[in-house]
Write a structure and sequence with these properties.
Shape: flat
Helix content: 55-70%
Distance between the termini: 41 Å
Strand content: 5-15%
Strand order of the largest sheet: 3-2-1-4-5
Order of helices and strands: HHHHHHHEEEHEHEHHHHHHHHHHHH
Low-confidence stretches: 1-19
Number of domains: 4
Mean pLDDT: 85
Radius of gyration: 35 Å
C-alpha cells in the first residue's frame, strides 16, 4: 500500500505513526545502515531500530518513476526529506501564492522537474498540501506582527486609505512611508463608523500616532481621520488632476478631432477640383464657356488653408491644458520649482491660482458646457487642501527639529538644507522622467554640499548624533504626503489575482496581505514589516516551512483498461 501523506507532524497529538512519517522513516533507515557499517548484523540492526524486515524491504522499494540512483539514495536520507519539503513549499509559495497560478501548475512543475519520482504530484495530494500551507502563513504573519509590535519605537504615521471593489468591497489602509498594510478586510459598507472600527483593529497594539491621512474627499474617509484620530487630512493630488482632466481633455480632444475632420474634407475637396481640371484638359471641348476651374480651385484652397489654421488653433489649447495638468505635480512640493528654496503656502496658493486662471480662460475660449465647468470648479476648491497640507508639513517639521534643542547653526542646516535635500531625493525617486530625476538629484546634491564641508558645525558632532539627526531628517521628509498611489497599486494587484480563481477567498486575502508585509522585498532587501517596525524579523518562509508536513510519496500507478471502440462487433 502506498504511504498516506502526514497531516501536521509538528503537533504532538496529531503526529503520525513512525511507519507513515517520512522523516522518521529516513532516520530509521539511516540508523540501520550506520549500525550495519559498525559491524552489526542486519537482524540486530533492525531489532534495535524496531523495524521489521518486511517493512525495510517495502521502504527500500525502487521509486515508481525511474530516477538517478544517487538522487534516489539522497532523498531517502533525513537531509533529502528536508530538501524535498523545502522544494515543495517553495513551489506552492512562489507559483500559487505569489504568482497567482493554480495547483495544477505546481503539479506540472513537479512532473517536468522530475520531482514527481519522489513527491506525490496528483492534484488531490497537492491541493491538500496547499490548504495546509495557507493556515501557517496567516498565523505566522500574525505572530510576527505581535512580536515586532512589542519592541517597535514610536512612529508618526501617515495613512493612505481607499476602498477596492473587486470581488466585493474591501477597506484598505497602508502606511504611506513603509508600504506596510495595516488594514485589508472585506466590509458591507464604507461609512465613517465602519472605517473607524476597521482602523481601530488595524492599529491595535502598535506604538504609533496617526498624524495624517491621504485619501479622496469622501465623508466616510474624512471623518475617521479628522474627527476620530484628530489627524490632518491630505487630499490626493490625483483627484484634483482627474477633475481637471474630466473638464478639459475630452471636450478639447473632440474639438481637435472635428478640426482634423474638416481639414481632411477641405483638402479632399481641393484635390478633387485639381483632378477635375486636369481631366477637363484631357478631353475634347465642344462649344460653350469652359468651367471656372481657377475660381473653384482658389476657393477650395482658401478653405483648406482656413481649416488647417483652425486645426492648429484647436491643438494648442489641448496641449496647453495637458501641460498645465502636469504642472500641478511639479509645483505641489515643499521646494520651490524655480528658485530652489523652500516654498511657502502663500507662494503655492498664488501658483495654483495662476494655473486655474489659465485653465478657466481655456475653458471659456472652448465654450465648455456648464457640467464640465463644474468639474473645474470642484478641482479649484481642492486647492485649499493642498495649501493646508504644505502648511501642516512645515509646522510638523519645525516642531520636530525644535524639540531636539540643537545649536542655531545646526538647526538652520536641518531646516534649510538637510530635510529639503531628502525631500528632493524622494521626489526624484518617484519621478518617471529621466530629465526631471537628474534635475531633482542635482538640486539635492547642491543643498547637501555645504553640510559636507569640514568647516560646517554639523561635522563636529559625534557619529551617533549625526545618525540620529539623519533619522529625524528622513522622518520629517516623509511627512509630506500628497498621494495614495501605494493603495491604488495594491488595488490593481488584487484586481489581477482573481483572474486565476473563481473568487478571492477571505483566507487567500489574508495570505496575500501576509506576503506583502513579511515576504516581498524591495531592491534594498527590506520587507514592509522591517521598514515599518524598524527592526529585522525572522523569515516568514522559514517559519512556515517548519510547520508543514513532509511531502507524500508518489503512489504506484495503476494501469487503466484500454477503451473499447464503440463499433466493436458483439458476439451473438
Amino acid at each position: 500500500m502506498p504511504d498516506a501523506p502526514a497531516a501536521v507532524d509538528s503537533i504532538a497529538d496529531r503526529r503520525p505513526t513512525p511507519i507513515h512519517d517520512r522523516l522518521d522513516r529516513a532516520k530509521q533507515l539511516h540508523a540501520v545502515a550506520q549500525a550495519q557499517q559498525d559491524g552489526e548484523s542486519q537482524r540486530a540492526a533492525l531489532t534495535s531500530a524496531g523495524v521489521a524486515r518486511s517493512t525495510r524491504r517495502h521502504w527500500n522499494a525502487p521509486p515508481a518513476t525511474p530516477a538517478p540512483a544517487a538522487l534516489a539514495a539522497f532523498v531517502e536520507t533525513p537531509e533529502g526529506v528536508v530538501w524535498l519539503r523545502q522544494i515543495l513549499v517553495a513551489a506552492h509559495w512562489s507559483i500559487s501564492e505569489q504568482g497567482g497560478a493554480g495547483v495544477r501548475v505546481v503539479c506540472d512543475f513537479l512532473a517536468l522537474s522530475g520531482r514527481s519520482a519522489f513527491i506525490g504530484a496528483s492534484y488531490g495530494t497537492q491541493q491538500a498540501f496547499h490548504v495546509e500551507l495557507e493556515e501557517p502563513m496567516v498565523s505566522g504573519a500574525t505572530d510576527l506582527r505581535e512580536a515586532l509590535a512589542q519592541g517597535m519605537p514610536h512612529r508618526l504615521l501617515s495613512l493612505a486609505e481607499d476602498e477596492t471593489w473587486k470581488d466585493g468591497m474591501r477597506l484598505v489602509s497602508i502606511d504611506a512611508v513603509s508600504g506596510f498594510i495595516l488594514l485589508e478586510q472585506t466590509s458591507d459598507e464604507r461609512s465613517a463608523a465602519a472605517w473607524t472600527q476597521a482602523l481601530e483593529g488595524g492599529l491595535k497594539g502598535l506604538n504609533v500616532t496617526v498624524v495624517q491621512g491621504t485619501s479622496d474627499e469622501a465623508k466616510g474617509l474624512l471623518a475617521p481621520v479628522e474627527r476620530d484620530l484628530g489627524a490632518h487630512h491630505s487630499t490626493d493630488l490625483f483627484h484634483l488632476q482627474h477633475e481637471v482632466s474630466q473638464a478639459m481633455s475630452l471636450s478639447l480632444k473632440r474639438a481637435e478631432q472635428q478640426a482634423e475632420s474638416d481639414e481632411a474634407k477641405a483638402k479632399a475637396c481641393w484635390q478633387g477640383e485639381c483632378a477635375a481640371e486636369q481631366a477637363d484638359h484631357r478631353r475634347r471641348h465642344g462649344p460653350g464657356r469652359p468651367p471656372a476651374f481657377a475660381a473653384r480651385i482658389d476657393e477650395a484652397l482658401s478653405a483648406d488653408v482656413q481649416t488647417s489654421l483652425t486645426q492648429a488653433r484647436a491643438q494648442a489649447p489641448r496641449a496647453e491644458a495637458k501641460t498645465l495638468i502636469g504642472a500641478f505635480s511639479e509645483i505641489d512640493h515643499p521646494d520651490d520649482p524655480q528658485q530652489g528654496q523652500a516654498q511657502t503656502p502663500e507662494q503655492l496658493q498664488r501658483r495654483l491660482g495662476t494655473l486655474f486662471a489659465r485653465l478657466e480662460a481655456i475653458a471659456e475660449e472652448a465654450d465648455l458646457s456648464e457640467r464640465l465647468c463644474a468639474h473645474l470648479a470642484k478641482a479649484k476648491r481642492l486647492t485649499h487642501s493642498l495649501v493646508a497640507t504644505l502648511a501642516f508639513f512645515f509646522m510638523m517639521v519645525n516642531t520636530r527639529v525644535q524639540a531636539l534643542d540643537l545649536a542655531p547653526a545646526i538647526e538652520q542646516a536641518m531646516l534649510n538644507d538637510r530635510i529639503p535635500a531628502l525631500s528632493l531625493e524622494r521626489a526624484a525617486a518617484r519621478s518617471t522622467r529621466a530629465e526631471q530625476r537628474h534635475r531633482l538629484r542635482a538640486r539635492s546634491a547642491q543643498r547637501l554640499a555645504p553640510l559636507q564641508q569640514r568647516s560646517h558645525p554639523i561635522q563636529s558632532l559625534d557619529q551617533e548624533t549625526r545618525r540620529d539627526l539623519e533619522q529625524v531628517a528622513g522622518e520629517c521628509a516623509d511627512l509630506f504626503q500628497r498621494s495614495r498611489s501605494c493603495v491604488e497599486g495594491r488595488n490593481g494587484f488584487l484586481a489581477l489575482d482573481p483572474h486565476g480563481h473563481h473568487q478571492l477567498r477571505p483566507r487567500k486575502q489574508q495570505v496575500l496581505t501576509a506576503l506583502h508585509n513579511f515576504a516581498i522585498k524591495r531592491p534594498d532587501g527590506t520587507t514592509a514589516a522591517e521598514r515599518f517596525f524598524a527592526q529585522p524579523h525572522p523569515s516568514l518562509f522559514e517559519q512556515v516551512l517548519e510547520r508543514m508536513p513532509w511531502p507524500a510519496r508518489p503512489a504506484q500507478r495503476r494501469p487503466r483498461p484500454a477503451r473499447q471502440p464503440y463499433l466493436t462487433l458483439v458476439a451473438a
